[in-house]
Write a structure and sequence with these properties.
Strand order of the largest sheet: 3-2-1-4-5-6-7
CATH superfamily: NAD(P)-binding Rossmann-like Domain
Strand content: 15-25%
Shape: globular
Number of strands: 7
Number of helices: 9
Number of domains: 1
Order of helices and strands: EHEHEHEHEHHEHHHE
Distance between the termini: 26 Å
Structural class: alpha/beta
CATH class: Alpha Beta
Largest sheet: 7 strands, parallel
Protein backbone atom coordinates (compact mmCIF):
# COMPACT_ATOMS: atom_id res chain seq x y z
CA UNK A 1 0.00 0.00 0.00
CA UNK A 2 1.10 3.57 -0.63
CA UNK A 3 2.81 5.03 2.42
CA UNK A 4 4.01 8.42 1.23
CA UNK A 5 0.74 10.33 0.84
CA UNK A 6 1.12 11.78 4.32
CA UNK A 7 -0.71 15.04 3.54
CA UNK A 8 -3.08 13.93 0.79
CA UNK A 9 -6.20 14.31 2.95
CA UNK A 10 -4.60 15.98 5.95
CA UNK A 11 -6.98 17.91 8.16
CA UNK A 12 -10.02 15.90 7.08
CA UNK A 13 -12.18 13.68 9.27
CA UNK A 14 -13.42 10.39 7.87
CA UNK A 15 -15.95 7.78 8.93
CA UNK A 16 -15.61 4.31 7.45
CA UNK A 17 -18.53 2.04 8.26
CA UNK A 18 -17.85 -1.63 8.87
CA UNK A 19 -14.13 -0.92 9.17
CA UNK A 20 -13.34 -3.41 11.92
CA UNK A 21 -11.81 -5.69 9.30
CA UNK A 22 -11.38 -6.48 5.63
CA UNK A 23 -11.67 -3.82 2.96
CA UNK A 24 -13.00 -1.21 5.38
CA UNK A 25 -10.03 -1.64 7.67
CA UNK A 26 -7.61 -1.31 4.76
CA UNK A 27 -9.30 1.88 3.54
CA UNK A 28 -9.30 3.37 7.04
CA UNK A 29 -5.61 2.63 7.56
CA UNK A 30 -4.67 4.13 4.18
CA UNK A 31 -6.74 7.24 4.90
CA UNK A 32 -5.02 7.64 8.25
CA UNK A 33 -1.64 7.36 6.50
CA UNK A 34 -2.82 10.08 4.12
CA UNK A 35 -3.44 12.43 7.05
CA UNK A 36 -7.12 12.00 7.93
CA UNK A 37 -8.52 11.57 11.43
CA UNK A 38 -10.59 8.38 11.44
CA UNK A 39 -13.84 7.22 12.99
CA UNK A 40 -13.83 3.41 12.95
CA UNK A 41 -17.33 1.98 12.91
CA UNK A 42 -18.18 -1.65 13.60
CA UNK A 43 -20.89 -3.56 15.42
CA UNK A 44 -18.19 -5.08 17.65
CA UNK A 45 -16.21 -2.78 19.94
CA UNK A 46 -13.18 -5.05 20.13
CA UNK A 47 -12.78 -5.08 16.36
CA UNK A 48 -13.06 -1.30 16.11
CA UNK A 49 -10.62 -0.78 18.97
CA UNK A 50 -8.09 -3.12 17.37
CA UNK A 51 -8.06 -1.10 14.15
CA UNK A 52 -7.78 2.13 16.13
CA UNK A 53 -4.72 0.76 17.91
CA UNK A 54 -3.13 -0.16 14.58
CA UNK A 55 -3.70 3.39 13.33
CA UNK A 56 -2.45 4.99 16.53
CA UNK A 57 0.69 2.86 16.47
CA UNK A 58 1.54 4.58 13.17
CA UNK A 59 1.09 8.00 14.79
CA UNK A 60 -2.38 8.86 13.49
CA UNK A 61 -5.69 9.48 15.26
CA UNK A 62 -8.67 7.12 15.28
CA UNK A 63 -11.78 6.73 17.42
CA UNK A 64 -13.96 3.62 17.67
CA UNK A 65 -17.71 3.99 17.29
CA UNK A 66 -20.06 1.05 17.76
CA UNK A 67 -23.31 1.14 15.79
CA UNK A 68 -25.44 -1.08 13.61
CA UNK A 69 -25.89 1.06 10.51
CA UNK A 70 -29.17 -0.72 9.75
CA UNK A 71 -30.75 0.76 12.88
CA UNK A 72 -31.83 4.37 12.46
CA UNK A 73 -31.63 5.21 16.15
CA UNK A 74 -28.09 3.85 16.27
CA UNK A 75 -27.11 5.93 13.24
CA UNK A 76 -28.45 9.02 15.03
CA UNK A 77 -26.45 8.10 18.11
CA UNK A 78 -23.35 7.51 15.97
CA UNK A 79 -23.66 11.00 14.49
CA UNK A 80 -23.97 12.46 17.98
CA UNK A 81 -20.86 10.56 19.01
CA UNK A 82 -18.66 11.28 15.99
CA UNK A 83 -19.88 14.73 15.12
CA UNK A 84 -19.87 15.76 11.47
CA UNK A 85 -17.23 14.37 9.13
CA UNK A 86 -15.75 15.49 5.83
CA UNK A 87 -15.50 12.01 4.30
CA UNK A 88 -18.00 9.17 4.51
CA UNK A 89 -17.18 5.69 3.25
CA UNK A 90 -20.22 3.43 3.15
CA UNK A 91 -18.37 0.15 3.40
CA UNK A 92 -20.57 -1.93 5.72
CA UNK A 93 -22.28 -4.68 3.79
CA UNK A 94 -22.94 -8.37 3.72
CA UNK A 95 -19.74 -9.99 2.43
CA UNK A 96 -19.80 -12.71 -0.19
CA UNK A 97 -19.41 -15.43 2.43
CA UNK A 98 -22.54 -14.19 4.18
CA UNK A 99 -24.73 -14.40 1.08
CA UNK A 100 -27.02 -17.36 0.60
CA UNK A 101 -26.26 -18.72 -2.86
CA UNK A 102 -29.65 -19.82 -4.13
CA UNK A 103 -31.74 -19.54 -7.24
CA UNK A 104 -34.12 -16.61 -6.86
CA UNK A 105 -37.15 -18.89 -7.10
CA UNK A 106 -35.95 -20.74 -4.01
CA UNK A 107 -35.71 -17.58 -1.89
CA UNK A 108 -38.18 -15.29 -0.16
CA UNK A 109 -38.37 -12.16 1.98
CA UNK A 110 -36.39 -13.78 4.80
CA UNK A 111 -33.38 -13.85 2.47
CA UNK A 112 -34.12 -10.61 0.60
CA UNK A 113 -34.74 -8.23 3.47
CA UNK A 114 -31.30 -8.39 5.19
CA UNK A 115 -29.54 -7.90 1.84
CA UNK A 116 -31.60 -4.85 0.93
CA UNK A 117 -31.51 -3.42 4.44
CA UNK A 118 -27.72 -3.44 4.79
CA UNK A 119 -26.55 -2.95 1.23
CA UNK A 120 -29.05 -0.22 0.29
CA UNK A 121 -31.17 1.13 3.14
CA UNK A 122 -28.19 1.58 5.45
CA UNK A 123 -26.33 3.49 2.73
CA UNK A 124 -29.30 5.85 2.45
CA UNK A 125 -29.62 6.28 6.22
CA UNK A 126 -25.97 6.95 6.99
CA UNK A 127 -25.57 9.26 4.01
CA UNK A 128 -28.66 11.23 5.02
CA UNK A 129 -27.26 11.66 8.52
CA UNK A 130 -23.84 13.01 7.48
CA UNK A 131 -24.67 14.90 4.28
CA UNK A 132 -26.13 18.14 5.74
CA UNK A 133 -22.80 19.24 7.25
CA UNK A 134 -21.00 18.59 3.96
CA UNK A 135 -23.54 20.74 2.12
CA UNK A 136 -23.20 23.48 4.70
CA UNK A 137 -19.41 23.61 4.49
CA UNK A 138 -19.43 23.22 0.69
CA UNK A 139 -17.03 20.26 0.77
CA UNK A 140 -17.62 16.58 1.21
CA UNK A 141 -16.78 13.15 -0.12
CA UNK A 142 -19.15 10.17 -0.12
CA UNK A 143 -17.83 6.83 -1.31
CA UNK A 144 -19.82 3.59 -1.34
CA UNK A 145 -18.29 0.14 -1.74
CA UNK A 146 -20.36 -1.99 -4.09
CA UNK A 147 -19.93 -5.24 -6.00
CA UNK A 148 -19.58 -6.51 -9.54
CA UNK A 149 -22.65 -8.62 -8.75
CA UNK A 150 -24.52 -5.35 -9.20
CA UNK A 151 -22.69 -4.23 -12.36
CA UNK A 152 -22.55 -7.49 -14.26
CA UNK A 153 -25.04 -9.76 -12.53
CA UNK A 154 -24.21 -13.13 -11.02
CA UNK A 155 -26.17 -16.35 -10.99
CA UNK A 156 -27.89 -17.06 -7.67
CA UNK A 157 -27.05 -13.59 -6.34
CA UNK A 158 -29.90 -11.68 -7.97
CA UNK A 159 -31.16 -9.82 -4.90
CA UNK A 160 -27.68 -9.04 -3.56
CA UNK A 161 -26.78 -7.69 -6.99
CA UNK A 162 -30.00 -5.70 -7.11
CA UNK A 163 -29.24 -4.03 -3.77
CA UNK A 164 -25.72 -3.13 -4.89
CA UNK A 165 -27.00 -1.85 -8.24
CA UNK A 166 -29.53 0.30 -6.40
CA UNK A 167 -26.74 1.77 -4.25
CA UNK A 168 -24.94 2.71 -7.46
CA UNK A 169 -28.09 4.33 -8.85
CA UNK A 170 -28.56 6.26 -5.62
CA UNK A 171 -24.96 7.47 -5.79
CA UNK A 172 -25.33 8.70 -9.36
CA UNK A 173 -28.55 10.53 -8.55
CA UNK A 174 -27.13 12.11 -5.40
CA UNK A 175 -23.99 13.17 -7.26
CA UNK A 176 -26.19 15.10 -9.69
CA UNK A 177 -27.92 16.82 -6.77
CA UNK A 178 -24.97 17.88 -4.64
CA UNK A 179 -22.13 18.48 -7.08
CA UNK A 180 -22.58 22.25 -7.08
CA UNK A 181 -22.25 22.19 -3.29
CA UNK A 182 -18.72 20.79 -3.44
CA UNK A 183 -19.75 17.24 -2.52
CA UNK A 184 -18.69 14.31 -4.69
CA UNK A 185 -20.38 10.90 -4.64
CA UNK A 186 -18.73 7.82 -6.13
CA UNK A 187 -18.59 4.03 -5.84
CA UNK A 188 -15.85 1.43 -5.95
CA UNK A 189 -17.00 -1.95 -7.24
CA UNK A 190 -15.15 -5.04 -6.05
CA UNK A 191 -14.73 -8.54 -7.39
CA UNK A 192 -13.87 -11.63 -5.37
CA UNK A 193 -11.74 -10.69 -2.36
CA UNK A 194 -9.48 -12.90 -0.27
CA UNK A 195 -11.08 -12.38 3.11
CA UNK A 196 -13.08 -14.08 5.82
CA UNK A 197 -14.54 -17.47 5.01
CA UNK A 198 -12.97 -17.49 1.53
CA UNK A 199 -9.53 -16.88 2.97
CA UNK A 200 -10.04 -19.76 5.38
CA UNK A 201 -11.25 -22.00 2.55
CA UNK A 202 -8.18 -21.17 0.46
CA UNK A 203 -5.91 -21.95 3.40
CA UNK A 204 -7.54 -25.37 3.64
CA UNK A 205 -7.54 -25.98 -0.12
CA UNK A 206 -5.18 -23.71 -2.12
CA UNK A 207 -6.60 -25.02 -5.39
CA UNK A 208 -9.73 -22.93 -4.76
CA UNK A 209 -7.79 -19.76 -5.40
CA UNK A 210 -6.52 -20.98 -8.74
CA UNK A 211 -10.00 -21.86 -9.90
CA UNK A 212 -11.37 -18.47 -8.90
CA UNK A 213 -8.43 -16.58 -10.42
CA UNK A 214 -9.18 -17.96 -13.88
CA UNK A 215 -12.03 -15.47 -14.23
CA UNK A 216 -9.70 -12.50 -13.70
CA UNK A 217 -7.44 -11.10 -16.46
CA UNK A 218 -5.03 -9.90 -13.77
CA UNK A 219 -4.47 -13.55 -12.85
CA UNK A 220 -5.46 -13.35 -9.19
CA UNK A 221 -8.36 -12.59 -6.89
CA UNK A 222 -8.50 -9.37 -4.90
CA UNK A 223 -6.63 -8.48 -1.73
CA UNK A 224 -8.42 -6.35 0.84
CA UNK A 225 -6.07 -3.40 0.37
CA UNK A 226 -6.42 -3.20 -3.44
CA UNK A 227 -9.10 -0.50 -3.32
CA UNK A 228 -7.55 1.68 -0.60
CA UNK A 229 -5.34 3.97 -2.74
CA UNK A 230 -8.22 4.74 -5.11
CA UNK A 231 -10.47 5.45 -2.13
CA UNK A 232 -7.99 8.04 -0.86
CA UNK A 233 -7.75 9.70 -4.28
CA UNK A 234 -11.53 9.93 -4.72
CA UNK A 235 -11.90 11.39 -1.22
CA UNK A 236 -9.23 14.06 -1.69
CA UNK A 237 -9.13 17.54 -3.20
CA UNK A 238 -7.63 15.87 -6.28
CA UNK A 239 -10.97 14.14 -6.81
CA UNK A 240 -13.03 17.31 -6.96
CA UNK A 241 -14.01 16.78 -10.63
CA UNK A 242 -14.74 13.07 -10.26
CA UNK A 243 -18.32 12.36 -9.26
CA UNK A 244 -21.23 10.10 -10.13
CA UNK A 245 -18.87 7.30 -11.13
CA UNK A 246 -18.53 3.59 -10.39
CA UNK A 247 -14.92 2.42 -10.53
CA UNK A 248 -14.19 -1.32 -10.80
CA UNK A 249 -11.32 -2.61 -8.70
CA UNK A 250 -11.68 -6.17 -9.88
CA UNK A 251 -8.65 -7.33 -11.83
CA UNK A 252 -10.44 -6.78 -15.14
CA UNK A 253 -13.35 -9.11 -14.37
CA UNK A 254 -16.06 -6.76 -15.64
CA UNK A 255 -14.60 -3.76 -17.51
CA UNK A 256 -16.42 -0.46 -17.11
CA UNK A 257 -16.29 0.39 -20.82
Amino acid sequence: MIRDWSNFIAGRTALVTGSGGGVGRAIAIQMARAGAELRINDIHLDRAEKVCREIEEEGSVATPVVADVCERDQVTRMLDETGPVDILVNNAGIPAEGITIKSFVDTGPAEWDPLIRLNLAAVLGVTRAYLPHMLEQKWGRILTIVSDAGRRGERKQAVYGAAKAAAMGFSRGLAAEVGRDGVTVNCISLGTMRHGALEAAIAADPAIEGRLAKAYPAGRIGEVDDAAPLAVLLCSDAGSWITGQVYPVDGGYAPAL
